[in-house]
Write a structure and sequence with these properties.
This protein has about 550 residues and is mainly alpha-helical. The chain is built from 30 helices and five strands. Among the domains are: about 70 residues, Serine Threonine Protein Phosphatase 5, Tetratricopeptide repeat (Alpha Horseshoe), CATH 1.25.40; about 70 residues, no CATH class. Strands 3-4-5 form a three-stranded antiparallel sheet, with no helix packed on it. A two-stranded antiparallel ribbon has the order 1-2. The chain starts with a helix and ends in a 6-residue tail after the last strand. It binds one DNA strand of 10 nucleotides through α3, α5, α7, α9 and α11.
Length: about 550
Amino acid sequence: MAASIFRNAGQILLPVKFAISRRLCLASQSPPQLHGFSNLDSLVSAVITAVTSCASISNCRSIHCKVMKSLSFSHGFIGDQLVSAYLRLGFTKDACNMFDELPDRDLVSWNSFISGFSRRGDLSNCLNAFSAMKLETGVEANEGTIVPLISACTETRALDIGTYIHGFILKFGMLLELRIANVLINMYGKSGYLDGASGLFEAIPIPNLVSWNSIIAVHVQTGKPEEGIGYFIRSRRAGIKPDQGTLITTLEACEELGSAKLAEAIHGFLFITGLDSNLTLATGLLSLYSKLGSLVASQKVFGHIRNPDSIAWTAMLASYGVHGKGKEAVKTFKLMVKEGVAPDHVTFTHLLNACSHAGLLKEGRAGLLSDAYKLIISMPMKPNSGVWGALMGACKKHNNIELGKEAFDNMLALEPLDSRNYLSLSNMYSSAGLRKEASEVRGLMKKRSVIRIPGSSCIEHEKRIHRFVSGDRSHPLEEEISKKLEELVKKVRGSGAWARTEFVLQDVDDEEVREDMINKHSEKLAIGREIIIRDTKRFHHFSNGSCSCRDYW
DNA sequence: ATAGGGTTAG
């Protein structure tokens, strides 16, 4: 009973931790009672679970000492739990030493050992443990062994090893286990083998919710949002009740498609099912509307959130930022702090971005990059890849290659598989004329099989979505589209809107690129009504002959 | 009903 209470202790850690340490002291003070193991075993295991979920090594060690003093850790799964805790906290050596000493290693011991490495993305140690396990007599792998192994392959994009394990799975007839099929769908899908993922999915007799969520997610995340939505519709027909994960993914698909209509349809669905009061989904929706260009809609959604947490506040702040409303972003930040919600590194990243877009920061305007660097280094929390990305963007703008490279290295250590990181470094080199370095970066990307999803633009017309990638000539009306564009550009030139913006692009040498960029910005100014349009970084609101960015871009 | 990862917000 006590154990089941403690098992759910993750959410209310502080009081629980206190209660636990008192119970433990009592236990170790009265050794005679320790011979009735079953109660204490379950208590101690719950203790370890609770303590490790707050990720503190000192807590873990003190528990370890107390357990060692009061009874042998060889009993039950206490040893397994401690090994797993050490691994999770990054004390690999301690964990391995302890694992070697465990006298009765059963299947669960091995599985949690492998799982510990997998969580840290340590594929080679996963494989070492797996080989060692096969040598140990009487222990046969099951789905608890395979799932973390495949997961580690997915994380590290080690598709060759993953495929080998797939072979192992087939050999031992383990594909019938649904959880294994689901992680395989995830692995093949995330590695860009959507056919493989779909093939596996179709072979499942009765896919469950996770199967559906996985097949939807891998399509949406690898540049196939239409297909993802297709699977979502199929899941509805199959009578599957979607959960938070399903709908977050469909919101992501709306973003990819740039479809406000689909977003509204899903918003309606959320409303009907009552899921619109789900904080995660409301936050996702808010952010989506903002990304689709409607700041007003995102404000509305935020207004309906009862107790916004730091993530929701940050989403609202970021919305103001990408819409060029730097002052509103700062206001939101102050309000958030006033409400007693603690900002974190992501909040600060968006705040910095919002300020630099709006030209509010001296650092942004004058290119005082080393100051920005110092700011990042002295931040109270560990900078994430977004912070480094913001610095790198500034470095590119001001041609500071050296600092840009440093930002890249930091960024890559945190997000080694995000193609955007590689591309922004490569772009920085290209725009500085360093072609050799640029192609090296692209080579590195290829070598690590980082998948690049080409950027594209969509427009919704009469219930159909038309998608264009750069230089795309595949649209059936391609000729007419090109003609119309040329016509527009000519009109703009004649209107005089041309000269106004030209000075902005002094740092772009390539005449063609320069002209193109100016066209994109100025042609919207020539038209009378409000137009909202997105560039690679944020939104521009054009009305009454001026843009919300005040030509700061 | 059994210690162990199936997918998924800023």
